[in-house]
Amino acid sequence: MKSILYFVVLIVSFGPSAILLTLGVIFSPAWLYSLFESQMATLVPFLMVVAGLLGFWGMHALNNLTLYPYKTDTPPKRLIVYLSLGCIASLTATIFAAYMDWLLAIAMFLPIPVTACLTYRNRAYFHKQVCS
């Protein structure tokens, strides 16, 4: 029951971001082509996609750490980097979405509090590994 609840929270909070990230991955070859054609304006969306992919990887590792605490597959320092990059990508998407629609901005902001909550739940793992 606990794992089902976690998955529902993750789907609701990360669903819109996952859709936007999927579109970013689909359009990333066009951004790379434009980047090589010396259009630096495409660098920001491409970096958002890369940071978002690393953030989703970190969120997957954090969810596994929450559900299976004795199964640690990602070192805590690397996990902190992944989660930080994901939060930066989500915050950037929130700022861009705020210019279009405030509901979209709220949907893009939802992964940040969920990440903070799960990081707080696993604070002992981060504390004993990072501080030692």
Structure description:
Helix content is 83%, strand content 0%. With 132 residues, the chain is mainly α. It has one domain (2-130). The longest helix has 35 residues, at 2-36. The model has no long low-confidence stretch (mean pLDDT 86). The chain crosses the membrane at residues 7-33, 39-58, 79-96, 102-120. Keywords: Membrane, Transmembrane, Transmembrane helix.
Give the overall form: globular
Write down the Rg. Answer: 16 Å
Mean pLDDT metric: 86
Report the span from N to C terminus: 34 Å
Please report the total strand number as a whole number.
0
Can you tell me the residue ranges where pLDDT is under 50 for at least 5 consecutive residues?
A: none
Q: Count up the domains.
A: 1
Biggest sheet overview: none
Q: Level of helix content?
A: over 70%
Give me the strand/helix succession: HHHHHH
Strand proportion: under 5%
Tally of helical segments:
6
Q: Helices and strands: which structural class? A: mainly alpha
Transmembrane segments: 7-33, 39-58, 79-96, 102-120
Keywords: Membrane, Transmembrane, Transmembrane helix
